[in-house]
Amino acid sequence: MVRLTASIPDEVSTARLRMPVITPDEARAILGGHREPSWHPDYPRKDDLDALTMVREESCWAPRHIVRAFDGLVVGSIGFFGPPQDADDAVPEVEVGYGLVPDARGHGAATEALQGLLGHVDAAGIRVRASVEPSNTASVRVLAKCGFTGLLGSDEDGNLVMVRPLPA
Known about the structure:
Blueprint (H helix, E strand, L loop, with lengths): L10 E3 L3 E4 L3 H8 L14 H7 L11 E5 L5 E7 L4 E2 L5 E9 L8 H15 L3 E6 L4 H9 L4 E5 L5 E5 L4
Parallel strand pairs: 6-7
Antiparallel strand pairs: 1-2, 2-3, 3-4, 4-6, 5-6, 7-9, 8-9
């Protein structure tokens, strides 16, 4: 059974990034067309907006902005598709998604952001899975660098479903 008290900080920081949770009020404003001057001109992307449609309540498992520390610019999002649920083997599991504006790709930000969140998820004893288009080799590399070694097959959209085993 999933521990209802399992949580991660509302803001996670790494050496180069901050990842604050997007609140329901903020999600509604963004979906309504609101923009901040601290956002990259290409943010939010369509995938970011799609993720925001899932925000219903305050939760540490909601999408987060990816903010570069050196200039404070929001360049993408990362987060979970809801709180952890027990998988078929009764292990609590959550699905993660992430993305960056094209200008911010290729500098290790996605890997760093994902590793930053995974440290907290590991401490909560929750396994993480991700779905990725087979042709998205950059994202497959990010997942591999972050320890996603298990292949669970593919989803209904033909995406690879990869899982990161809990650390021993």
